[in-house]
Q: What sequence folds into this?
């Protein structure tokens, strides 16, 4: 029990939570206007789409896959939504169509990976350009700015009298569901099994192809949802929306303790990583540091997170080996001294 308690308090998630809380404390005390309700609401709104994208991305990486086309699917979904609204399609009908487009794009990725056995890194690198290119073919360099009041109000309004933006509500609702599925359900155990040892999972009866295809379709669905949120928040549908979002999303996932080699990680760590990245972005913005410098900071954070995660993994493995060695070397209490027959037999063998 004590060892489990120590392991819990020395976990990566606990360390990341402490680092995030320390960063927040420093920002509150040293950065002007950081703690204002308006600024915090803007920071929460600014992370809304990435928060939605990182949920399926974490599941994919745990399953030893990745999707680099998430931002392009977001942009394509935004374009489709804008074109449908411009064509006078009612919003209640347009939203299901957009979600269907996202699922279709995710299915394309999933089928290329699972049916043709192509690496997801290369497949989604190609579809990253493909999906955004389709968006440009549909809308060109133009944009759709005239959106229904229901959509724009969702993008700018707060929940009741609080400073919580409506755009972060989908994440608040979906995060517990994703966490429960990943860490408390049979499907979650199958995802960990696929990432930990695909061959063993296959022999155990896990339908690997079907599960991986489902994860890619889920990623497309969440990307489309993020596209709707992004369009509402900026009141703008364009083919170049969400450029570079992949870097932030992957950084959040890996910084949150999701193992790049699959099979390990929790969404609690991803949550703290998301708060840390949002805090860093917000502080840099308040200090008048531009987007390019922010990208450099996020890239460095990604590299540092990989190094720290690998170092933590090495320490964990060393501790496990030491515990196993010490356990093997300990004398067993139920061990019996050798009988006289065994002693005589051993002595006789030695004399021979």
A:
């Amino acid at each position: 029990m004590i060892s489990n308690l120590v392991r819990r308090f020395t976990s990566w998630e606990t360390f990341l939570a402490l680092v995030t809380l320390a960063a927040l404390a420093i920002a509150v005390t040293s950065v002007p206007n950081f703690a204002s309700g308006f600024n915090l609401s803007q920071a929460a709104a600014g992370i809304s789409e990435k928060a939605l994208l990182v949920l399926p991305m974490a599941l994919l990486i745990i399953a030893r896959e990745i999707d680099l086309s998430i931002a392009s699917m977001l942009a394509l979904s935004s374009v489709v939504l804008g074109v449908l609204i411009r064509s006078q399609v009612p919003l209640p009908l347009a939203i299901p169509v957009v979600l269907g487009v996202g699922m279709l794009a995710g299915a394309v990725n999933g089928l290329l990976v699972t049916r043709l056995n192509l690496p997801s890194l290369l497949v989604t690198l190609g579809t990253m350009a493909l999906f955004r290119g389709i968006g440009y073919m549909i809308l060109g360099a133009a944009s759709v700015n005239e959106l229904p009041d229901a959509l724009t109000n969702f993008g700018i309004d707060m929940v009741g009298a609080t400073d919580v933006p409506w755009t972060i509500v989908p994440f608040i609702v979906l995060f517990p569901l994703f966490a429960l599925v990943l860490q408390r359900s049979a499907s979650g155990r199958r995802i960990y099994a696929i990432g930990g040892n695909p061959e063993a999972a296959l022999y155990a009866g896990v339908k690997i192809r079907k599960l991986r295809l489902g994860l890619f379709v889920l990623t497309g669905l969440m990307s489309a949802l993020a596209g709707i949120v992004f369009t509402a928040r900026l009141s703008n549908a364009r083919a170049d929306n969400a450029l570079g979002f992949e870097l932030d999303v992957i950084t959040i996932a890996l910084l949150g303790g999701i193992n790049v080699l699959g099979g390990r990680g929790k969404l609690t760590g991803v949550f703290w990583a998301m708060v840390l990245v949002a805090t860093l972005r917000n502080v840099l913005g308040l200090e008048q540091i531009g987007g390019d410098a922010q990208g450099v900071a996020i890239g460095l954070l990604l590299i540092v997170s990989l190094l720290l995660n690998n170092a933590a993994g090495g320490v964990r493995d060393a501790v496990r080996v030491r515990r196993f060695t010490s356990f093997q070397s300990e004398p067993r209490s139920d061990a019996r001294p050798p009988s006289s027959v065994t002693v005589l037999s051993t002595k006789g063998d030695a004399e021979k």
About this structure: Residues 338-352 have pLDDT under 50 and may be disordered.
